Every structure is written in C-alpha cells, then in structure tokens.
Amino acid sequence: MSHDQTLDGQLLDLYLGALSDSERAALQQRLAADPQLATRHAALAGVFTALRSAASDVPEPPTDLIQRTCARVAAAPPLRVRRPVERGEATLVRRVFGLRDVIATAAMVVLIVGVGVPSLLHVRERGQRVMCSAQLAQLGQAMGSYATAHAGSLPFAGWSPRASWAPSSDPTAEVRPNRRHLFPVVRAGTVSPRALICPSTTDVPIPAAKVRELEDFPDARNLSFAYQNMAGRRPTLNRTPSDMPIAADDNPIFDRGRFLMADIPTRLGLQHPWAVNSRTHAGRGQNVLTLGGRVIWTTSPDVGIDADNIWTLHGVQGYQGREGPGAETDTHLLK
Predict the structure, then answer these.
(1) Spatial separation of the C-alpha atoms in residues 98 and 93, rounded to whole Å
(2) What is the Cα–Cα distance from 333 to 165, expressed in whole angstroms?
(3) How far is CA 72 from the centre of its chain?
C-alpha cells in the first residue's frame, strides 16, 4: 500500500473512531503541516456531514422489516454457482478503495437519498390522497342512497335539547358525538367500515362483525372524515345547493368535539387559526365531499357556499357542544 493510501485510510479511521489517541494526535499534526492532506480531510468531512444530514431525513423503517426480509430470503430459490470452466479454482481479486472511491460512492448515496427518498414519499402520499378521495366518494354514494330513502334528508341519528356533540362537564348533558349521525349508513350496509378510513391516517375500522351490535362508532379513530354538524338547521338533498360541502378530511380545530382554537395560534403561529388545512395530509389541503356527491381537493377551507369556512359556524366564536348551523347552507364539519 502506498504512502497516500495509508494516510487516506487513517482519515477514514479518524471519522469512524478507529484511531488510538496517539495515532489521532499524530494525524492532527500531519494535517496542520500538509495542505494537500488537509484539503482531502475537508472533502471527507463534507461527505460525512451530508450523509448524516440525509440520514436524519429518512423515515423510520417499518417495525416488521426484519421479519419480512427473513421471509423473502427463506422463500427465494437457491443460488446456482457456476464452476470455473478453464481452471479448477477461482481467483479472488481484492480491490483496495482509495479516498476518491469512498467520496464518489458517498456522493452517490447522498444524491440517491436526497432525490429518491423525497420523490418516493411524495408519490406515496399522492397515492394515499387519491385513495382517501375514493373512500370519501363511497361515503357520498351511501349518503345519497340514505337521502333517497328518507325524503331527501341526510343521515341523522336524532337530537335532543340536552344533547352535546362535545365533551361536557354538565352532569345533565347527553354526550352524542356528531359522528354518530353517519352510523345509520354503516348499519344499513351501504358503506363498509373500512371505506370510512383514510389510508393517510392511523385510524382503524370497526370489525364488520361488530356493526350490528353497535349504535355508534365506539371511538373517533373508527372514522377518518368530518361530517356536517346536525345539531341545527340541516341541509337536504332536495333544497340545498349541490355544491355545499357536507363531509371532508378531519377538522383540524376540533379534537373529538373539543374546540382547539385557543391552542392553535400558539402552535402554528397563525393569525387566523380557522384558515388551517386538515392534518390528515400534513396540512397540504383536504378532500371535500359536496352534497351532489362530487369530491374535490382544496388547499383552503374557505370552500363552502359564499366562501364559507367549512371548519366553523358562521358568527360563532366559542363552542360548548350544543351549537348548530343557523342556516342550512352553513357548513360545519366535525366528528
């Protein structure tokens, strides 16, 4: 091995933590006295910095990656090894990689990670968004079937003066989450529990075998979509404009019915917290279902009738859980 290759190897060992204290001190002295070696050292430092930066942006691998890999290896056909034709033994040629080879290889890794990984993540999210839109469209078809059978009324599970769609400390309140109004279409079998789950979320469907035993979604995570607030004046298929939003990806300023507006400006630094997009797609926008059954993608929540904000009630600043639309065209979507 040449003198330069020895120094290159020591530079690599320095970054890999393989040098003793005396070797590290000697190399530091050599770097101070040799400008060319210092230049190679700086180039290698840039490569390691880029690798660390790229690695920090790579998402965590699936928890079952090891098991899946082992299963693929076990299922693979055995390798066939060809015997050398001209001689009875094969010669193993060992190639020594220099610093230039390492830097070039590392640069390729950085390029692949920096360009390939974000592209794959974007394609994955775009695919999930499209699937989410298709799920919402299935819900729209089920709601249309319900309305046809109920004189134009949207799915509705009833309401009472003591009911509250938000958690309440009032002992006389009957907590009835708004999502329960969608359960009739699930019980009727016009939409499957799995169709109510957007793949961009961690939500889980109700087991189909359990549907007949229930009157409501047991948990907010059993439904990915927000539905029109049914506590006030309700839209109908016969009278209300067909472009009115009636469902969408989940409302970002309510959590299980609890109003979050006081917390959102601090966390997101927004002057108008009601202008945020759904968290389902990382705040990029939301799929919105209209009364006419059309699903649109929008990057603003101000897509209701007359640019109405779909996350809030018109003229309402605080929410206790008993508020409802004052007009049938006032969209307020929540679970």
Answers:
(1) 16
(2) 12
(3) 27
- Burial degree of 66 (CB within 10 A; 0-12, 13-18, 19+): exposed
User: 266 CB contacts (<8 Å, ≥6 apart)?
Assistant: none
Distance CA 256, CA 135 (A): 21
CA atoms of 24 and 22, how far apart (whole Å): 5
* Planar angle of CA 17, 21, 24, nearest 5 degrees: 65
Quote the strand ranges of 131-275, DSSP E: 163-164, 174-175, 225-228, 245-249, 254-255, 258-259
For the stretch 157-162, contacts whose Cβ atoms lie closer than 8 Å and that sit 24 or more positions apart, written own/partner, are 157/181, 157/183, 157/184, 157/216, 157/230, 159/230, 159/231
Cβ atoms 298, 285 nearer than 8 A? yes
DSSP 270-317: -SSGGGPPPGGGTTS-EEEEETTS-EEEESSS--SGGG--TTS-TT--
Q: Which of 151, 223, 227 is nearest to 194 (CA)?
A: 223
| pLDDT, tens digit, 9 for 90 and up, residues 276-314 | 899 999 899 999 999 999 999 999 999 999 999 999 999
Q: Please, what's the b/e burial string for 232-258 (b: 16 or more CB within 10 A of its CB; e: otherwise)? A: bebbebeebeeebbbbbbbbbbbbebe
Q: Model confidence over 97-149: pLDDT tens digits? A: 566 666 667 666 665 655 555 555 556 677 888 899 999 999 999 999 999 99
Ranges of residues in the chain whose predicted pLDDT is under 70:
1-9, 12-13, 15-19, 41-104, 106-124, 262-273
On whether the CB atoms of residues 197 and 279 are closer than 8 A, the answer is no
Q: What is the CA radius of gyration of the chain?
A: 30
Which amino acid appears at position 93 of this protein?
V
Angle between helices 3-16 and 99-111 (to 10 degrees): 40
Give the CA dihedral 146, 148, 153, 159, nearest 10 degrees: -30
Residue recorded with tokens 């699937």: 131
